[in-house]
Each structure stands twice: as structure tokens, then as C-alpha cells.
Amino acid sequence: MYKNHSKSIVGYLLSFALLISFILYPNTLFAASADEGKKLVDKKCVSCHRFEGEAKSRFDLRAPDLMWGGNKYQVSWLTDFLQGQEEPLYQKNYRWDQSRKPKKHLVLSKADSRSIAKYFAKNLMDSRVKKGALDLSHFTEMEATLGEQIFKEHSCSACHQIDEEGKRVGGQQSTSFVNAGKRYNVDWVYRFNSHPPDFAPHSGEFVADVSQEGLRFVTGYIMTLGVNDFKFYEPWKDKFFKKASTQRGKLIYKEYCSQCHGATGQGDGPAATDLKPKPAVHAKMALDKEPTDYLYNVIYYGGKAVGKSPFMPYWGLTLKPQGVADVIAYMKDTFKGPALQAKVELKKGSDQPGLCPQVRKTPQAPGDILKLKNPLEPSKKNIRKGKLYFTQKAKPLACKHCHGMKGNGKGPKAFNMVPPPRNFTCASTMKDLTDGQMFWIIKNGSPNTEMQAYNTMKDNNIWRMILYIRQFIQ
Ligand code: HEC
Ligand code: HEC
Ligand code: HEC
Ligand code: HEC
Q: pTM of the predicted model, to two decimals?
């Protein structure tokens, strides 16, 4: 009894001493564990990986170099990977030798994985990688879309696989980018992308002809892969938008926009004469009702980015976000819809929005697609999702702005539109529209009309919108 008591006093004193030492030297625990990590690395990893030295060709290595392991990976990914909880990164084997099957990676305990992660964070930091070089808190959804385009147009998917709607697409020569957003630290990827041979010389790596801005887009895009709730920056919700000035905007309009759109928004600026399509006639548009995010995107990133003509330039680099906010404030204040007379003229024509029956001159989808039936069930969930895209989420512009909240083809943007948007409430016109036809037009647009291609949307979301569109007749 006496003995036990003394033991507990000793134990108590010991833990008290430990506690004090952690308060005085908070790094003790960390250091101990990082040292543990170092021991593990020396024992279990150096036979395959290098932890110091210059970058070398993959042909001279057994496994990827890890001297920048401290700023390359997110800790959570690294510890999961070391516990064998991640997919292999090189489907075709790192060593590129087709005769060998990729071997399962060595698996560690949770505690050992953590020690190694700590060792990485303490010792394997590459000073070329600047912290905060790419600020993802200011990365917009449009920038991710532009990054995806670069990824596809500059061959990245030829060597790095990604996941598209559950399917693996692209070549497998190099590392997979499935869930890459959960694996990498953004600053490392950004530095890597600036000059890949600094990290993987003579390994089949590829230097792309992409601008600094483009590198930002493609790097940010990679960082969205596998991250379902990625929080995109929405400039139109930022403080500076509330401070936008119509006065400053008026001047910007005069100095930059009127050369095409005309001094009073009639689309008759000196540059307009030879353009086809013509610059938009702002004076006839209800810009006060147009969604601000859309206006921001078309002005900041240009016509091409939202599926319109590249004759509408991208102004972001010239005007900066504040300038774009200012010119939007001016335009919303000035252009509030068609003059009464224009409305009256329109009412007489057969192109009046919302007419039924509505004449269709839309090109027909190819035979096999025309016959396609909607592969999705008209479940409540699918229809609800379809509605969400129709009314809000479809990019670059939600359908309701032209087709109307009620699907009658009389959205705020439909004024003066020739041909007018389809009236989905008109049974006699809609009976000729197969699921496949709608799918085709939504995916590819109807050339020379305002119905543009929604080609970055996932197929299933297009089918969900079609389920929703069918609800307008019942
Ligand atoms: C038998 C050789 C071998 C040993 C031993 C080994 N690895 Fe690996 N490691 C590889 C190979 C090969 C890959 C590429 C794996 C793939 O395709 O997923 C790899 C991948 C990795 C990666 C991801 C690299 C990348 O692509 O960015 C990390 C991190 C890693 N190993 C850490 C470790 C650590 C830490 C140890 C020691 C505890 C270790 N490895 C032991 C062969 C080895
Ligand atoms: C011809 C094949 C090829 C193309 C095309 C290619 N890459 Fe790579 N990529 C590589 C190779 C090889 C490596 C080095 C790693 C390795 O040995 O697999 C690499 C590595 C990377 C890495 C570092 C990955 C890691 O975990 O170490 C990133 C990021 C990257 N590439 C981005 C891109 C981007 C962005 C593009 C398009 C602009 C692109 N790659 C195009 C072959 C390619
Ligand atoms: C070089 C000529 C040119 C200049 C300069 C120009 N635009 Fe445009 N803009 C166009 C053209 C052409 C279109 C029509 C694009 C289309 O229909 O595909 C257009 C369309 C638009 C639209 C309508 C998009 C829609 O959905 O209908 C807005 C808004 C717009 N421009 C704003 C601006 C602002 C703001 C400026 C000045 C900062 C500006 N534009 C400067 C050529 C120009
Ligand atoms: C900027 C205006 C505008 C927006 C936004 C728009 N549409 Fe349209 N849509 C039109 C116009 C105009 C037509 C008529 C085209 C024609 O006559 O060929 C049309 C036609 C259609 C048709 C009929 C195709 C046919 O063969 O008759 C469908 C289906 C359609 N749109 C679906 C959509 C969906 C879904 C969205 C949103 C993802 C959308 N539209 C967004 C303007 C728009």
C-alpha cells in the first residue's frame, strides 16, 4: 500500500516535470517525433527514395525524389498514403518498365506515418517554393474553367489522368491527378509548373507555352480536383463591389467600351463597323436585371470565356477587379431595358418571345443522338437538381435569364432576341423535341443564335435539366 502510494507520487512528479518541460520547450514533442521520423526514413525508405541532392532523371531513380516532400504534400494525404489508404499514383509503374507490375507501397502504422510527416515538414522544405505564391482564396470558378481548358489544350491529360464523372480519362505515363487537390500544396505545384525540369529533368516531363496568368489558372484547376466543396472566390460578393463608383465607371465606359459599344451604348463605336457579331447594343439591354456574376465574367474574362465572340476582349488585366465593378455599376445604372418603342415594334413580329406555336429553325441533332432517351429517372431529386442548374448554377449563364423562370421563353434577356428563346410551355412546339435533340443543342448550342454551347457541363446535369424542362408542360 505504501509502495503503491510512493509510485503514484513519483509518477505524478514525473508527469508534472514533463508538462513543465512542454510548456517551457513546446518543440520537445515535435522534435522527438521528427527524430523518430528520421530514423524510420533511414531504415525503411532510403533504399528506394532520395531525400537530398539535385533533381535527377526518373531513369536513374527507383522511386520519386522526396527532398521537397515537406512542401509538396498535404500532411493528411501523406499520412494516409503511408498507411496504404491511397490509390497508386503510377498505374504503369514509376520505373516505366512495362514488364513489371506496380508493387504495393510499403505500409506504415499511423504513429510512424505521423512521425515521418513531421520529419518531412521540418527537414524537407524546398526554399525555391514561395509560401503564398498562389492565393487560392482569390481563385474564381471561371479561372478553374479556363485552367481546365489549358489542361486539355496543352496536352496535360495526355500524361496525367483525371476523373470525369467517375471515369478515368487521359494517359498514365506520369502521376495521376485524380484527387490531386487533396494531395499537393498549391505553392509547390505552382513552382513545379513554372519550370518542370527543375524537379524532373530528362524524365519525359513537359514545359508548356502558357502565360503566368495561365499557369495560375491551370495550377488552381489541379487543386480543385477531388475537392467537392472547393470554396471559389466570388468577386461580386466582395467589399470592393459595394464601393463601386458609377462616376469612375462612366469614364471607363468612355475610354474603353465606347470604341465598340458606342458613346451611348448603341453599338455604333468606330470599331464596330467591321465586326460580326456586332458589339452588344447595351442601350437595348436590361443590364440592371442581368446577373452581376455573369456581367463580371464576360467583362473580366472576355466573350470567349463565356462562349461568346472573342471580339469582346477580356478586360481584367487592364481594368482590375475594381474597374470592372465600377463599369458594371455604371452600366446597371444607365441601361435599364429597351425603349418602349422597341418593345412595341417587337410585339408585332413573329419573333416575339413566348409565342405559341413557335417556329423552329434549329438544326437537327445527328440521327443516333436524336433518338437518345433520357438515361435518368424523373425522380424528385433529379428534377430538383435540374431546376437548380436551370435557374442558378448553369455556367456561364443560367437558362432562366432567357427561357424565363416559368420556361415560357420570356426571361429578362429575351427582349429583342432573334430568334427568341424556346418557349418550353408550348406543347405543340415541344412535342417535336426529343430528349436527344435537346441534349445536342444544350451541349453544342444553336449556331448564330443566342443559344450557346454548355459544353463544360456534365452530361448528367444536362439530362437533369431536360427532366426539369419537361415539367413545364403538364
Ligand atoms: C521498394 C521501394 C520503396 C520503398 C522502400 C519506399 N517507397 Fe515510397 N514509393 C515507391 C514508389 C515506386 C513510388 C511511386 C508509387 C506509386 O505509383 O504510387 C513511391 C511513392 C511514394 C510517395 C509519393 C511520391 C510522389 O509521387 O509524389 C511518397 C510520399 C513515398 N513513396 C514515401 C515513402 C516513405 C516515407 C518511405 C519509407 C517509409 C517509402 N516511400 C518507402 C517506392 C518505395
Ligand atoms: C509528355 C508527358 C507529359 C505532359 C504532356 C505533361 N506532363 Fe506533367 N509530368 C510529366 C512527367 C514525366 C513528370 C515528372 C514526374 C514523373 O516522373 O512522373 C510530370 C510531373 C508533373 C507534376 C508534378 C507531379 C508530381 O507529383 O511530382 C505536375 C504538377 C505536372 N506534371 C503538371 C503538368 C501540367 C499542368 C501539364 C500540362 C501543361 C503537364 N504536366 C503535361 C509528364 C507530362
Ligand atoms: C473591340 C470591341 C469591343 C470593346 C472595346 C468592348 N466590347 Fe463588349 N462586346 C463586343 C462584342 C463584339 C460583343 C458581342 C459578343 C457576342 O455577341 O458574341 C460584346 C458584348 C458585350 C456584352 C454583352 C454580353 C452578352 O451576354 O450579351 C457586355 C456586357 C459587354 N460587351 C461589355 C463591355 C464593356 C464593359 C466594355 C468596356 C470595358 C466592352 N464591352 C468593350 C465588343 C467589344
Ligand atoms: C442568352 C440566352 C439563352 C440562354 C442563357 C439559354 N438559352 Fe436556350 N435558347 C435560346 C435561344 C435564342 C434559343 C432558340 C435557338 C433557335 O431557335 O435555334 C434557345 C433554344 C433552346 C432549346 C431548344 C432547342 C431546339 O432544338 O429547339 C433548348 C432545349 C434550350 N434552349 C435549352 C437551354 C438550357 C437548358 C439552357 C441553360 C443551360 C439555355 N437554353 C440557356 C437562348 C438561350
A: 0.87
Q: Which of the residue ranges 84-93, 340-349, 359-368 would you say has the lowest mean pLDDT? A: 340-349
Taking only the tens place, the pLDDT of each residue in 62-113 is 999 999 999 999 999 999 999 999 989 998 889 877 777 778 899 999 999 9
Q: 136-224 belongs to which CATH class?
A: mainly alpha
CA 264 to chain centre: 36
Residue ranges per structural domain of the chain: 28-123, 136-224, 236-337, 353-470
In CATH terms, the fold of domain 353-470 is Cytochrome Bc1 Complex; Chain D, domain 2 (1.10.760)
Q: Is the pLDDT of residue 348 over 70?
A: no
Asked if residue 421 has its Cβ within 6 Å of ligand 4, the reply is yes
User: Which atom of ligand 1 has the smallest separation from the CA of 89?
Assistant: 18
Ligand number with the minimum distance to the CA of 175: 2
Ligand 3 neighbours, Cβ below 6 Å, are 256-257, 259-261, 271, 275, 277, 279-280, 295, 298-299, 303, 308-309, 311-313, 315, 327
- CATH fourth-level superfamily of 28-123: Cytochrome c-like domain (1.10.760.10)
413 neighbors 282 (Cβ within 8 angstroms): no
H or E, element range at 9: helix 2-24
Summarised one tens digit per residue, pLDDT across range 369-390 is: 999 999 999 999 999 999 999 9
Kindly state the cell numbers that stand for 333.
445604372
Question: In the block, which residue shows the cell 488552381?
Answer: 220
Q: Residue 3's pLDDT is what?
A: 43
CATH 3.40.50.1000 fits 236-337, yes or no: no
- Tell me, using a 6 A CB cutoff, whether residue 106 lines ligand 1: yes
Mean pLDDT of 115-141: 96
- Among protein residues, the one with the nearest Cα to ligand 3's atom 43 is 312
Three cell numbers written together for 398? 443560367
What is the rounded distance in angstroms from the CA atom of residue 87 to the CA atom of residue 393?
32
According to DSSP, the residues that pair with 184 across neighbouring strands are: 73
